[in-house]
Amino acid sequence: MASSLDDYEQLASLLLPAGVRDFVAGGSGSETTLRRNRSALDAVTVTPRVLTGVSSPDPSTRLLGTPAAMPVAVAPMAYQQLVHPDGELALARAAAHAGIPYVISTLSSRPLEKIAAEATTWFQLYWLRDRSMVESLIDRAEQAGCAALMVTVDVPVMGRRLRDVRNSFQLPAEVVAANLVGARTEAHVGVAGASAVATHTASAFEPSLSWNDLEWIRRRCRLPLVVKGILDPRDARCAAEAGAEAVVVSNHGGRQLDGAPASIDALAAVVEVANCEVLLDSGVRSGTDVLRALALGASGVLIGRPLLWAMAVDAAAEALGLLTAELTQAMMLAGCATVADVAELTTGRA
Amino acid sequence: MASSLDDYEQLASLLLPAGVRDFVAGGSGSETTLRRNRSALDAVTVTPRVLTGVSSPDPSTRLLGTPAAMPVAVAPMAYQQLVHPDGELALARAAAHAGIPYVISTLSSRPLEKIAAEATTWFQLYWLRDRSMVESLIDRAEQAGCAALMVTVDVPVMGRRLRDVRNSFQLPAEVVAANLVGARTEAHVGVAGASAVATHTASAFEPSLSWNDLEWIRRRCRLPLVVKGILDPRDARCAAEAGAEAVVVSNHGGRQLDGAPASIDALAAVVEVANCEVLLDSGVRSGTDVLRALALGASGVLIGRPLLWAMAVDAAAEALGLLTAELTQAMMLAGCATVADVAELTTGRA
Amino acid sequence: MASSLDDYEQLASLLLPAGVRDFVAGGSGSETTLRRNRSALDAVTVTPRVLTGVSSPDPSTRLLGTPAAMPVAVAPMAYQQLVHPDGELALARAAAHAGIPYVISTLSSRPLEKIAAEATTWFQLYWLRDRSMVESLIDRAEQAGCAALMVTVDVPVMGRRLRDVRNSFQLPAEVVAANLVGARTEAHVGVAGASAVATHTASAFEPSLSWNDLEWIRRRCRLPLVVKGILDPRDARCAAEAGAEAVVVSNHGGRQLDGAPASIDALAAVVEVANCEVLLDSGVRSGTDVLRALALGASGVLIGRPLLWAMAVDAAAEALGLLTAELTQAMMLAGCATVADVAELTTGRA
Amino acid sequence: MASSLDDYEQLASLLLPAGVRDFVAGGSGSETTLRRNRSALDAVTVTPRVLTGVSSPDPSTRLLGTPAAMPVAVAPMAYQQLVHPDGELALARAAAHAGIPYVISTLSSRPLEKIAAEATTWFQLYWLRDRSMVESLIDRAEQAGCAALMVTVDVPVMGRRLRDVRNSFQLPAEVVAANLVGARTEAHVGVAGASAVATHTASAFEPSLSWNDLEWIRRRCRLPLVVKGILDPRDARCAAEAGAEAVVVSNHGGRQLDGAPASIDALAAVVEVANCEVLLDSGVRSGTDVLRALALGASGVLIGRPLLWAMAVDAAAEALGLLTAELTQAMMLAGCATVADVAELTTGRA
Ligand SMILES: Cc1cc2nc3c(=O)[nH]c(=O)nc-3n(C[C@H](O)[C@H](O)[C@H](O)COP(=O)(O)O)c2cc1C
Ligand SMILES: Cc1cc2nc3c(=O)[nH]c(=O)nc-3n(C[C@H](O)[C@H](O)[C@H](O)COP(=O)(O)O)c2cc1C
Ligand SMILES: Cc1cc2nc3c(=O)[nH]c(=O)nc-3n(C[C@H](O)[C@H](O)[C@H](O)COP(=O)(O)O)c2cc1C
Ligand SMILES: Cc1cc2nc3c(=O)[nH]c(=O)nc-3n(C[C@H](O)[C@H](O)[C@H](O)COP(=O)(O)O)c2cc1C
């Protein structure tokens, strides 16, 4: 049994093929941003309050209008069957069990409808070159009952992830992009010295999106709209103007532009100007990290890799339970009865 | 023979069971705050003065009105019999020998009256769910001649200390909470993957205290009142308003909210607003550290773990003698005749 | 096949004699500045923009009026035959292939005319004691079709490079300063505990140059003039006043004054006051590094050692291709269509 | 042959007894200040100037009116016979050879008159409890032709140097305090767990000096007066008011108050207020370090340990030659013709 979310990485590493482990763990370039996500979070101090009369803190909240047992959603992550035979279904069930939203990736290895049946979900959209496919995905997500649409804007092309390049990483035959027509793709064709997943992305994704396209989506789709992958406050303002209900301050877990700031370091400036809800991801690993993000102004966080590691050892629900417990306890120790109280805490940098 | 307080940890580690060693040494979560306590103290520079005509500095002072041979008190620490058969008695004797106050923990493994007979003591109060027990403890402390009441406010629940969780740490049968009715408790019942001490705390402590409760104590108790576990200046002000004579700026030695600031980093802001005496603990390991805290505005410090390590090798008095010598020498080298002079030194961060 | 420019150092180290490897890799003194070049670049964050509608970024630009397929030129580096039998010809061909300028060192091991025939080149001038040789070099560069004259001003004497001193480094007989009369020099005569290359430089270079000399060159030479080796903004201003079209902010790859600032840290202040184009070198190793320099105001960079390592394994063209790909991708991920857009990105220090 | 001053420590460590090596190398307490002396110097950047027309920089200067071939004096260091049979004579000869002042320690192992015969010297005074001895030392120094009197004020007692404590360090019989009556002292009597040298100092030195005593010296002695061991700008002002011609910003090489700032970090504030010459020591190891100190406002530096290491391998003159070469070259690379030019360079912190 794990005693912290970090433990799952160790445990999963014993089981997973090295290529898969690296695909999940890796970042882009020299992984500067990947490492900085952690060092920046570690440097944030949160000053607890005392004697506030809290007996049992309530970590529940609403994220984008969706009720959530804690201010955490499962980050959209592609191809979850890589780490567990049940793929997305397993992790969605764990999210449902924990009472938090699960974000379905465009590149899920199970059909979005199947996943949406398991939990409160949001649908994450990658913009495909084929606009009719985009329309179809949005419609399917609405019909499947997804509660929000999350448009990921930081992947015009995939970041250069050297681990995958060195491993000539490709998807195993049984893991497919289940939502796409022609699910077997370049992602399954190994090329020495290249990432097949990146090759597929390059051919399938539309790289040249603009705010006009986002407005088009805004008109096209009734669901609350979240723009994922914002770091510059100017873009946060654009997102709100284009009609987004929320942005996710994110560097994609250090997987896109190496050299981008840690998302926790970018958060406060975005919160200051954004006229919308602000979520954060990239590097969150504990209840204390959630507290840090909330204290710096986020309304919630997405959490990615730790849940894949946990899932690999059949412990995703346990991991989310642990995170809930950690956050509840951190709130207790910080004297916060509610998620709103956390925003009143003083933060610093050590 | 040890030449610095840090040496005792090495020496004691050879003797103590691993579970006990970890219980004493450990912090909560990923131990960020535990480590930062040291790195932050190490970063504080104190600029010495010269030719001040000091021939033999006098480290003596008053802490909360109690005369003290140096501006140091022994921090309240539970279950001292874990490290020495005489438990609290041994460490209280060493404090008496060194001429400094000894703080008796609510969770002492010897009855508070026995300990109070050995030294000038203060009594540390954890708020138990059973308010009649709280009243009884306060009364007993007053009657036993304790010179102050220290209310610890940073343990609504115990921090998640992963070492204890991983060790499934429980108290040995012979070590009990001697001041409590029903001294044998959940703390003695091992549970795999959990800290029995934390379980006991959760069931015994009242988590939802407020400033009203502190005011109730203030009315109930004639002794000088100290609030231990303050990091936010707003809380220091509340404490003084509620009638406390002093606060202890403390993160509980990095054992409660992981991610809290180092207490030395929180000190100056508290000193600035507090209308009362300000003590500090968490990480103090040498005469230079005492000097750092005084130069930043504390009137004194509490010292914890090093004295348990020393006690484990029957050297608590020696350790306090060493600390006195170090502080006296540091004052000498800084050109300070008295404890008050130290507050005039310039500090910096390296 | 390498997946990042850093890989070439490992690969080349297997092939090159230790003395040559150290001559290339080393810096001066305790190599503080050498290390800082990297740590300072790593600390620069660049905040990407999103949804800018870029489909295929164009990294092409003009450097000093010379068209360049990306804002990168090959730094002038002496004696390239040390790492490859074709010497400068091989690297110039790679530059031509990549569509970027190649800077010919005064100390090239092939005659400048031969090199200039292979690529768009600039000529780097070291000031020799014999002024008629300087005149002749300038004339030869003009006649050979070099497109700019780069005067290196940070080598009045060679920095004390301890690796070369410890290796008693000397040039092998077949590697000569092909542009100089009497190409076989002190650089070929080993002296225990000394760098023969430094000895040669000391005897051949004129150490006491002044801005008057630069003005003399300005009058003497029709080509665009670049002053290489500027760190102080006051000197950047002098350079522009003396008629230079550009300066290179550079600490010579940490090989001259140990203790000098990282060039990336010196860049912004130079850009602010310089009335001319500003290039940068020293430590650039990736597309992200180029982005960092551009975002901080450089119009381009020079890149040195990585190309020698790549050349040693016959992969200089590959390396430049990789760099182009990295930069294009970094621009894409940062939402930049053109090199000019990069200057609008926000930078920070982590 | 060494290629940097640091090399001598390695070389000497092979020869010297461990106790002596530690006595020389060690600092006080946890050696925080000792380490910081280096890390702070390493962090200082100096921005070179170019094209200043310097052909051969002149490092010569005057220190306290004494002509010096470079802005460096040999720091006063006790008991030099510990590392070389000729003791102080050997190092004084090296200083004379290098053309720089040698500072004779009160605790020299050869009589001050013998040392003064070998070089331009200053005399360093420790205040002995026996004031008649102090008077006699001052008179002897004047008569022996010492050119300045340096009063060390940061040793009211010796810092607690744990290496010496752990080694129970004592002087070998043949090494004595040759200037003192009763040269064989407590310093020769080993006590387990104590430094015999510290014990001797405690009994011989007068701890309670004040500015009045300095004024007394000022009246008593015709030589230029230097106060060594200043870190607080307020003390620098006092020193000038008491009639000192100079102060040495120094933390005694990290051997006195552990936790004191690095002397290079304390320098600028002292320079700003001091109405006198300002020297610096503690951690200087290279020509670049000298440049750093001068650029931050010192008129010169003292250098300690590296010369003992060099002396131990009969290379003190070589070491000083190396330092002169390094400084001359650093000046050249920074574009400085004279020591005064160095003060115009821009400094920063990396
Ligand atoms: C294996 C993996 C796959 C991912 N797939 C997607 C995806 O399909 N869509 C998306 O928007 N983000 C994707 N991400 C990024 C995550 O949504 C999230 O931004 C990131 O993982 C957060 O950082 P963390 O893993 O440090 O918590 C993926 C991340 C990983 C690790
Ligand atoms: C083993 C142990 C037991 C402790 N028990 C108590 C306690 O019963 N009551 C309390 O207020 N603090 C307790 N503390 C916290 C200490 O009073 C003090 O805040 C902390 O140890 C100071 O940090 P230091 O150990 O780094 O000096 C305990 C600390 C340790 C290490
Ligand atoms: C082996 C070597 C030889 C060099 N020779 C010259 C030269 O002849 N002329 C010159 O101006 N700079 C010379 N330099 C400095 C480079 O032009 C450039 O400033 C430096 O290498 C940039 O740093 P980088 O290697 O970290 O990219 C040389 C550098 C190296 C590593
Ligand atoms: C072995 C040793 C002996 C010393 N003895 C004296 C002394 O007798 N008087 C004095 O003023 N300083 C003494 N010092 C301090 C030096 O003068 C000087 O402040 C210090 O060594 C400078 O730092 P550095 O060794 O890092 O260059 C001594 C230092 C050492 C290392």
Automatic annotation (TrEMBL), chains A, B, C, D:
PANTHER family found in the cross-reference section: 2-HYDROXYACID OXIDASE 1, S -2-HYDROXY-ACID OXIDASE-RELATED
Residues annotated as catalytic: H252 (proton acceptor)
Coiled coil: none
Protein name: 4-hydroxymandelate oxidase
InterPro entries membership: Aldolase_TIM, Alpha-hydoxy_acid_DH_FMN, FMN-dep_DH, FMN_HAD, FMN_hydac_DH_AS
Positions contributing to glyoxylate binding: Y126, R161, H252, R255
Annotated residues for binding of FMN: 76-78, 105, 124, 152, 228, 250, 281-285, 304-305
SUPFAM superfamilies in the cross-refs: FMN-linked oxidoreductases (SSF51395)
Family per record: Belongs to the FMN-dependent alpha-hydroxy acid dehydrogenase family.
